[in-house]
Fold this protein.
Amino acid sequence: MTSKGKVLVAMSGGIDSSVTALLLHEEGYEVIGVTMKTWDYASSGGNRKTTGCCSLDDINDARILAVNYGFHHMIIDIREEFGDYIIDNFVDEYVAGRTPNPCVLCNTHIKWDALLRRADQLGCEFIATGHYANVREENGRYVISKGKDENKDQSYVLWGLKQEALARTKFPLGKFTKTEIRQMALDRGHTELAKKSESYEICFVPDNDYRGFLKRKVDGLEERVAGGDFIDLHGNILGKHEGYPFYTIGQRKGLGIAMGEPMYVIRINPSDNTVVLGKKEDLKRAQMKVRRPNLIKYDNLPQETEVLTKVRYKDKGAMSQLSINPAGEITVDFFHEVQGIAPGQSAVFYEGNDLLGGGFISQ
């Protein structure tokens, strides 16, 4: 064993996780690479070539890199646990009229748990991933902060991690930009790796057609939800929609209805199979509720906490005040109205660059 110890590195075969493994290897850690097979890509039913993470080509790329550098690599099959939890939740959320966050759930409930279990079995003190974020110990807690590259910062999808997991987690890429990471790959002679494109698709929906995925996964879904009404904020019928699970808050395109002016999805009502349409300004709200919160920076939420709140991954965020309500949810009061608040998505709270915590938007 090296003086630095053993680290289990999640390797998807892409540039970020590959450079993560190389950096830790060069720093003197004993690296064990692991690629997690999360989904049977042939069963996705999509029409286009898989571009999500951990395709068969990516798995082979991860293995070859490990062999070339002399560290161990293994593939672990977590399709059953992934499918039972992540995909069932994905479907259930859309059927409930919400917009799910599968990557957040996967990090929190699947990938980190799977990594830590294997790390224990292999005698690894640490685990590492290629996320663009940082983690440090402060005042007895492990605090996540934003990555150096503002365009690549991935702290948003990590709000659900527990302290026990963060205590053993390393994010080597947090102090670098994506450009610097590509240059590192080139400097080490990995030209093809440096050229690899990124995927922003959900791994189990490789054609990015979530409507088609839902139709394939839920027998009779179209018959159950088709023929509902588009209505306005006053309940007036505007036309027929194709089924409420096939729409998201803030959606403007693909509504199949002409009103003479741009209309947006304002609210989704599964109980009566209606989709509420309105103008862009109708999307604005000054308050929301957040369920199942997880705090990162503090044990308990300080009273009347003022933070920057993001309501989606690429959101710039808006200043707000947080408080705990009697139901154990966090009430978020924005200083100025924000738009596009979608139940099911993650609300993530920041103090400066530090991740205070987050939760799922309930309403």
In short: The radius of gyration is 22 Å. Residues 102-122 form the longest helix (21 residues). The chain has nine helices and 17 strands. Residues 10 and 98 are 30 Å apart (CA to CA).
